[in-house]
Specification:
175 residues, alpha+beta, 5-stranded antiparallel beta sheet, 3-stranded antiparallel beta sheet
Length: 175
């Protein structure tokens, strides 16, 4: 699952993956999604705490949250679990700090980091339903096509046969 919420000059993007497969994984993912949608404008660490409380009665989830603030050209990021996040075309190197764990079960406190977000920057977030070993050069769509088309291409080429997959692509200044 994913969430995209825009308000003012900010946008929150999240990729969520419920543990396991089937209806129980979907229930966990939907619980997290509802919590994010109702608290999207709060601090990222607070959103993680709220999702953790909401998901205690579920299998739990892994997720990544990215808040973009266009005027400040700033990206704030936090992740717990195995959501893959890649950053391309940014003038400064970006290193995301990933924490292992399950939100709603044994999740550590996420490390919230801030990064410069450039007009030409591209961020790709995806669940483990996508093959992790791919190179940016294999997907010229990331630079040449709109974000939705690039995400569909990644999904079509890299989705695993035995798992659900979510891909979100964010490009440049989406004002």
């Amino acid at each position: 699952d994913f969430v995209v919420k825009k308000w003012g000059e900010s946008i929150l993007v999240s990729v969520i993956d419920g543990l396991g497969h089937g209806q129980w994984a979907n229930r966990a993912s939907q619980t997290a999604k509802r919590m994010i949608e109702s608290h999207f404008d709060g601090p990222l660490d607070e959103i993680f705490r709220n999702v953790g409380r909401a998901c205690r009665s579920t299998r739990g989830v892994v997720m990544a949250l990215a808040r973009f603030e266009w005027i400040q050209e700033k990206l704030t990021f936090a992740s717990v679990g195995n959501i893959e996040t890649r950053f391309f075309n940014n003038p400064e190197p970006v290193k995301f700090i990933l924490r292992r764990g399950i939100i709603g079960y044994n999740a550590p406190t996420p490390v919230v980091t801030e990064h410069h977000w450039d007009n030409g920057s591209i961020m790709v977030m995806h669940s483990d339903g996508l093959k992790a070993h791919w190179k940016r050069e294999e997907f010229p769509e990331l630079s040449e096509k709109p974000a939705e088309i690039a995400a569909r291409r990644l999904l079509n080429v890299l989705a695993k046969d035995n798992d659900d997959a979510t891909v979100v692509v964010v490009k440049g200044a989406l004002k």
